[in-house]
Structure formats: structure tokens, C-alpha cells
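pls design
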């Protein structure tokens, strides 16, 4: 609590998120843990759990009479606004909509909420409202659209009297390229390759180190582009109406391989996808093999989700640099990550390895095709090396450095490049196989997708940034 007269602030409650003060200023509702909603006096005293809720909660609001707490709940792709009555201890669903975002409960009995637009405009959200009986928490009438804005998403909403305040934000991801020096342990000042306001994720370098493949949503869906490092604009690799991502060169350099799925028009997940190949100079794409469940990543990109967490939901593949070598595909099947060898011309070969849950966030294949490096994500301070040649696994322990997100093998196979989650200056680092960490770059919000060139002289990576401002609307009607 921060007194407006300038007196010293006072801490009320530890380990609390998404707090909301009741209109009569008697109570505070907040989240503690991932599945519990708590209540405390306005002074912070008497904190106790009032309801256990599965799924994820990130918004709270009070009814005008201060007797009901409304909260958002997200689980298995569905979203809802639910309420808990302090007197009866009963809960009920107010509104269900998989596109729901933040919300607030106004004094005149409305819930105002943000709703993400349908395909292909997922990068935008708008404000809606619906009337709710404060006594019963039952909806009166139908939802009504309040705004028709484009290009932004909403975070916190708050209603006070005749004013509505909210955070309006926009994400973008920029591809940077830089030169590696001193054996890859030093990075020259990186320069921007992409200059638009879209989501752009680098995936591969050409064999000569003169161009970069990247995935972008600049056409309204995720697609594959190739851009020379000295060029101002990219060129599209494949035409058509599918979603495409994660393009890589085949070991012999003759093909560009990529993952594709139908554009599911806003659905959370397609049943399956395909791994495809197309000539490096273009031409007709050809299927290589089918892959297990394939979500449409642009739905995540629109909400600013980073491209890590790959094994948690969708397939991924990597190819070694040695000619005539097999590539490796990972698929999530039930609660396992299954690694399978495949040939770009002949398709699926043999299973290589399995990993049980919890699944890693990221992995990469060594240049000789003998090792998989695995990054474990939030809370992890190690990188696991899995042998595909029968050797025992080994861990690279990272002392004083953790939350490894994206990993990529160095071209010489003697180190890995990695990015990590951090609340300030997220790093891009080179990590030797004995655990020595050299930070090459510090980002602003989120650094992602390191991709070293085959000759080890360059590296591309993505930097995710966010524009975020607070707005106030008078008399939102």
C-alpha cells in the first residue's frame, strides 16, 4: 500500500498475485500458487483460501456490492469468467468464451472484457460488455461490442466511477544477425535484419552464410521467408494457404525442409501436420512424412508467446550438417517426447529415444548428428546431452545461471548457444561443454531462437519486444 500523502509504503501480503480491492475497501482477493484464490482484510491480516480452482487465473474483479469475487479461468484451451459468493461459498460460471481476456466489473452492473479477434486477425483484441445481476451473477442480455480497434491486445482492465483504464500492448519479434569472433565467444554488435512490426523467428542459415530462413506472420498466417543479410526485404519460399514454420536445410543442402498444417481458422489445434521439402531454388513442395498433432503457432504468436516450449505442444525437427546423415524429428505423443530418425527423400526410419514428462522446452541436434542438447526451461540450471550412439547421457551444470529456454549447437560441436528467461536483460550466451558461460548479448524483454551459421562465423537470433501503454476512457458505453 502506497499512501498518497507521500508516507512510506507498507507491505501487506507476501506471495500474492493479481490482487483486487473490494469496492467497500474491506477486503483484498488475490492468487497464491497456481490453483488457489485467497482473501484477506484490507490491512493484509487474516489471509485464508476461499476456493481451489484448476487451471490458470490472471484477472480478479468484485461485484458492486462487494459480496462476489469474479475471476478468469483458463484450462485446456477454454476460458471463462466465474464468480464466488462470499456468503454462500458457491461458485458459478458467468461467461465462457475461448477468446476471453482481461475483464472488470463496473458499478452499473456490467462486466467489460477484452476478446481476441477471430482468424486471421488474432493480433488484435477489442472490448465487449455484458450486463450481470450482482446478486445472482446471472447474465442479462447478450454480449455487446464496444470498440473496433486494430493491432493491439489488452492487459489489465480497471473500472472506477465513470472511467475505464486499461493497458494496451503490442508485441513484435525482430531478427538480428551478428558476427562471431574469438572462436564464437565474442559477438560483434548485432544488426537488424527485419524492420517490420511482425513476429519473426530465425530458423536456419544458408550453407554460404549469406542468407537466413525465418518464420513470420507478416501475411496473416505463419509462413517461411528467406532474406539475404544485405537485403532490405525477404522473399517467400513457398506459396499456398497452409501454415508453415521451422524451415531448415537438408544435410546435402539441396532441399528446404519445413513443417506445415492446414489453416484451422482459429481452432486451437489441427489433428496432424506434415513435414515437407522444397528445392532451395523453389518449385513444387513434396511431402516427406506425417507428424503427430500440430497446433497453429500464429495463434500463440499473436498473444506474444515465445517460440520456446516446442516439445510441450508441437513437433520439431533438426538436421545435422554432415552429408548423407539422417535428420531427427520430435513428436509429443501422450506424455512422452519421441525422437525419430528420417531421411528427407525416404521418410520415417527408426525411433531413437524417448523422454517422459516433464518435457523439455527446447532441443537441438549436434552437427555430427550424434547428440541432442536439451534445455529444460523455467527453473532449470542444466542442459542435458542425450547420445544417439549408445553413450550414457550427461548434464552441463550451469552455476549461477538458469531458466534455459532455447538451445542451439555451435558449428564446431564444442559448445551450445542458449537464451534464458530473465526479468531484466535476458541473455544470449555461449556455453562450453564443461559449463563455462560467456554472455554475448543482453536483450530488452525476451531473447530467443539462436541460430549459428554452418561455418561458425555468424549467428542469428530473435528479440521479442513489447509496446505497452495505459489508456483511460471516459464513460465507456
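designed seq:
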Amino acid at each position: 500500500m502506497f499512501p498518497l500523502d507521500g508516507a512510506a509504503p507498507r507491505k501487506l501480503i507476501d506471495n500474492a498475485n493479481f490482487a483486487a480491492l473490494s469496492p467497500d475497501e474491506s477486503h483484498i482477493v488475490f492468487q497464491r500458487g497456481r490453483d488457489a484464490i485467497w482473501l484477506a482484510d484490507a490491512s493484509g491480516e487474516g489471509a485464508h483460501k476461499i476456493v481451489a480452482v484448476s487451471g490458470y487465473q490472471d484477472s480478479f474483479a468484485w461485484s458492486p456490492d462487494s459480496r462476489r469475487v469474479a475471476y478468469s479461468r483458463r484450462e485446456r484451451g477454454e476460458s471463462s469468467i466465474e464468480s464466488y459468493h462470499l456468503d454462500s461459498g458457491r461458485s458459478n460460471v458467468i461467461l465462457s468464451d475461448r477468446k476471453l481476456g482481461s475483464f472488470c466489473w463496473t458499478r452499473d452492473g456490467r462486466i467489460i472484457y477484452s476478446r481476441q479477434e477471430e482468424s486471421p486477425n488474432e493480433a488484435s483484441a477489442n472490448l465487449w460488455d455484458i450486463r450481470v445481476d450482482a446478486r445472482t451473477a446471472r447474465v442479462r442480455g447478450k454480449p455487446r461490442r464496444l470498440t473496433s480497434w486494430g493491432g493491439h491486445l489488452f492487459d489489465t482492465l480497471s473500472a472506477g466511477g465513470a472511467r475505464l483504464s486499461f493497458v494496451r500492448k503490442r508485441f513484435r519479434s525482430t531478427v538480428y544477425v551478428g558476427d562471431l569472433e574469438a572462436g564464437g565467444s565474442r559477438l560483434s554488435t548485432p544488426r537488424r535484419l527485419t524492420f517490420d512490426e511482425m513476429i519473426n523467428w530465425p530458423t536456419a542459415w544458408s550453407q554460404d552464410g549469406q542468407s537466413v530462413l525465418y518464420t513470420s506472420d507478416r501475411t496473416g498466417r505463419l509462413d517461411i521467408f528467406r532474406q539475404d543479410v544485405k537485403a532490405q526485404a525477404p522473399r517467400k519460399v513457398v506459396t499456398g494457404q497452409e501454415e508453415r514454420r521451422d524451415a531448415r536445410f537438408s544435410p546435402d543442402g539441396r532441399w528446404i525442409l519445413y513443417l506445415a498444417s492446414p489453416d484451422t481458422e482459429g481452432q486451437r489445434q489441427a489433428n496432424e501436420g506434415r513435414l515437407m521439402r522444397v528445392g532451395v531454388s523453389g518449385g513444387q513442395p513434396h511431402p516427406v512424412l506425417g507428424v503427430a498433432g500440430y497446433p497453429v503457432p500464429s495463434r500463440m504468436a499473436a498473444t506474444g508467446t515465445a517460440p520456446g516450449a516446442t516439445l510441450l505442444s508441437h513437433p520439431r525437427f533438426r538436421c545435422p550438417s554432415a552429408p548423407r546423415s539422417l535428420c531427427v524429428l520430435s513428436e509429443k505423443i501422450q506424455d512422452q517426447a519421441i525422437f525419430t530418425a528420417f531421411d528427407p527423400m525416404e521418410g520415417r526410419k527408426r525411433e531413437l529415444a524417448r523422454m517422459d514428462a516433464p518435457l523439455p522446452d527446447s532441443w537441438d541436434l549436434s552437427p555430427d548428428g550424434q547428440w541432442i542438447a536439451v534445455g529444460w526451461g523455467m527453473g532449470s540450471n542444466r542442459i542435458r546431452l542425450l547420445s544417439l550412439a549408445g553413450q550414457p547421457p550427461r548434464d552441463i551444470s550451469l552455476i549461477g545461471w538458469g531458466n534455459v529456454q532455447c538451445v542451439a549447437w555451435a558449428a564446431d560441436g564444442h559448445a551450445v548457444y542458449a537464451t534464458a528467461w530473465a526479468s531484466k536483460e535476458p541473455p544470449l550466451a555461449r556455453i562450453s561443454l564443461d559449463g563455462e558461460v560467456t554472455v554475448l548479448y543482453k536483450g530488452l524483454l525476451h531473447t530467443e531462437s539462436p541460430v549459428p551459421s554452418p561455418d561458425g562465423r555468424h549467428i542469428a537470433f530473435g528479440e521479442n519486444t513489447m509496446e505497452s501503454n495505459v489508456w483511460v476512457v471516459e464513460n465507456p458505453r
